[in-house]
Description:
It is a single chain. By secondary structure, the protein is an alpha/beta fold. The chain has a single domain, classed as Decaprenyl diphosphate synthase-like (Undecaprenyl pyrophosphate synthetase), CATH 3.40.1180. It contains 7 helices and 6 strands, in the order E-H-H-E-H-E-H-E-H-H-E-E-H. The chain has helices at 14-20, 25-46, 65-88, 104-117, 133-150, 160-164, 212-223; strands spanning 6-10, 50-57, 91-96, 123-131, 177-180, 199-202. Strands 3-4-2-1-5-6 form a 6-stranded parallel β-sheet, sandwiched between helices. Strand 3 (91-96), helix 4 and strand 4 (123-131) form a beta-alpha-beta unit. Helix 1 packs across helix 2 (25-46), helix 2 (25-46) packs parallel to helix 3 and helix 3 (65-88) packs parallel to helix 4 (104-117). The radius of gyration is 18 Å and the shape is globular.
Amino acid sequence: MEVPKHIAIIMDGNGRWAQQRGLPRTAGHNEGGKRVKEIIRAAKHKGVKILTVFAFSTENWDRPRQEIDFLFKYLEEFLKNYRKELIEEDIKFVVIGRKTKINEKIIKKLAETERLTENNKSFLFVLALDYGGRWDIVDAARRLTRDVASGTLKDEDISEDVFGRYMALSGLPDPDLLVRTSGEERISNFLLWNLAYTELYFSQLHWPDFTPLELDRVIEAYSQRQRRFGKI
């Protein structure tokens, strides 16, 4: 069975999962965090090499302040409690996205976790935090034009490959498979450049219900598809 090397996930439905059970939305986020760890373990076991998850978008700042504060507090605890396993399991941690609006204390913890795991090679866990696909493209264009202006890069040398080096996932293969949970069928400004030829899978399950067994089903479905990349 062909296993995707790079899976990207839009983890949707934490709040709805909680509301269906008469719980506060924060309970859904708490349960969803547990699924992240389970899916990383399962993906690594299945032979996946890279997992990129959409944790917080540039648009999520419009949510209630209480929920935002909980999410970042939870992230802080997640990093603290998960760091040991990342190191022991040889998992490299990388965060992509803006860093200008996030609390400096959390930025330092993110950077510290990246530093402690930078030499790990068995698996790569990418956390998209305060990330947006349009921001990513604009940021890449801004940095590319600066290099052209400084003479570091010639405009005639700009190609898709060169432009891709300025994107947040620079140096990584594009996702083979994008999974979105909770029945929504859109990519919501996630990895717009990198999803050009990615296979899409939309699960009806809310993220807290997305188990390793469901991941098996997704990978099985992926293995039955034919990827032509525009060819016959």
